[in-house]
Predict the 3D structure of the following.
Amino acid sequence: MRLTNFDMDALRTFVTGVELGSFARAAQRLGRSTSATSAQLRKLESQADALLLRRAGRGLALTDSGELMLAYARRLLALNDEACAALHSGRLGGEVRLGLQEDFGEILLPEVLGRFARLHPRVRIEVRVARNAELLGALAAGGLDLALVWGGDPAAPGRELLGRVPMCWIGDAEVLARWREQAGEPLPLLCFEAPCLFRSEPCAALDRAGLPWRVAFSSANLGGLWAAARARLGITVRTALCLPAGVEVLPSGSSGLPPLPTLELALHRAEAQPSEPVQLLQSLIREALEESLPR
């Protein structure tokens, strides 16, 4: 059998389009025209001698061959990018000061930051894990180069919107069932100390629905909230991203809990034209989160 050398640009277009849920968005991300993107997808299907995508309503879905190609394409691109970074790492120096929410520490700290440190050993990384207001304040004061936050100023020049993530009621189903049985009893809430979006938004939603509530547990950190939720002291509100074991997303509407709003997750840079280490870390964070975020 004659072996085929797959085109790396075509593989990157294919993976980016699937991960973004749109090949038009992939064209924008990669700086190509939509016609060039379509040509690369046709080229990849020709090289694979298989149909990788099929029509599904108004969009596209992966075929069985497409699913298989996607898995290999991700591995090929990761190895290609690591090789490029490793060859370049000896020349790359400087520092990156990153701020992030506790929600993402478990994913980003070991995976993304560990990988970045291995690829760029001469780049010094400083990490601050804090709440939204503190991170945005540090960014404005020049204490951070990059921050992963909920929302922030949409007009900020260094802001990149990663996605929109629904808030969710989170806890144990038994707590919800017990509250529903005790009609008229206040809903026990597990909250961060004020001010906090994950405190003000659910309280406002309960008030609009005419449902009484009480703060059963208040904490300055996320670990405390998760411990209280596992202990069945009440119900909290976060997103469905990076949930620990022992808690689950609870339904709204039919359960008696009101619907909650959606939050924007964004990366904010202190500089409109950041240094190369900041750009590289931003790219790794984006790639790590894209698969988890809603399309």
Notes: The radius of gyration is 22 Å. Residues 64-89 form the longest helix (26 residues). The first strand starts at residue 53 and ends at 56. The mean pLDDT is 87.
